[in-house]
Amino acid sequence: MGTTLSTLAPNRGATKTKKRIGRGRGSGTGKTSGRGMKGQKARTGHHGAIKGFEGGQMPLQRRLPKRGFKNLFRVEAFAINVGLLASVFDGSEVVDVDAMRKVGLVPKRAEVIKVLGEGTLDKKLVVRAHRFSKSATEKLQAAGGAAEVIAAAPTAESASE
């Protein structure tokens, strides 16, 4: 006789019977239902270790005072050295933000670029950036170039005001 729909069953060991908790001592999970004796872990609402939880004691991060603040309007300047600019550019063209992005010196997300004076400069470079350090301006002018300050691109917050 062949297999019929009424005789179909899952393979041996493929299914497990549901653990019926709290159904008498003989079941093995009666009385305390597998939660052990009394205590915090035996109560409802316990969800294991939570980050910073100290057993009901006031956690360290709440015991310590708050300090300082974070300025939401701060714009972080991306720093680049004149020595790096001299190694990449030959001095025939004007070095502006687009030129620096094109050669991969400045990431797209950088809103403000600051040129710093580290490294040697032996080429006549005309650099256009948002900010310059004092030493960078001196090195550019000593080499016969120029440091031209440009205005930062307006952000979404300042454009809406």
Considering the chains and any ligands shown, give keywords for the structure.
161 residues, alpha/beta, three-stranded parallel beta sheet, two-stranded parallel ribbon, 5 helices, 5 strands, elongated
Protein described:
With 161 residues, the chain is an alpha/beta fold. It has a domain at 77-155: Ribosomal Protein L15, Chain: K, domain 2. It has five helices and five strands. Strands 1-2-4 form a three-stranded parallel beta sheet. The mean pLDDT is 89.
Level-2 CATH architecture of the domain at 77-155 = Ribosomal Protein L15, Chain: K, domain 2
Under the CATH scheme, which class of the domain at 77-155?
Alpha Beta
Strand content range: 5-15%
Enumerate how many helices there are, as a single number.
5
Mean pLDDT over the full residue set: 89
Compressed to H and E, one letter per element, the order equals: HEHHEEEHEH
Beginning-to-end CA distance, first to last residue: 84 Å
- Oligomeric organization of the protein chains: single chain
List the helices and strands and how they pair.
Blueprint: H1 60-63, E1 77-81, H2 82-88, H3 97-102, E2 112-116, E3 126-129, E4 131-132, H4 134-142, E5 146-149, H5 156-160
Parallel strand pairs: 1-2, 2-4, 3-5
Give a quick rundown of the structure.
The chain is α/β, with parallel strands linked by helices. The chain has helices at residues 60-63, 82-88, 97-102, 134-142, 156-160; strands at 77-81, 112-116, 126-129, 131-132, 146-149.
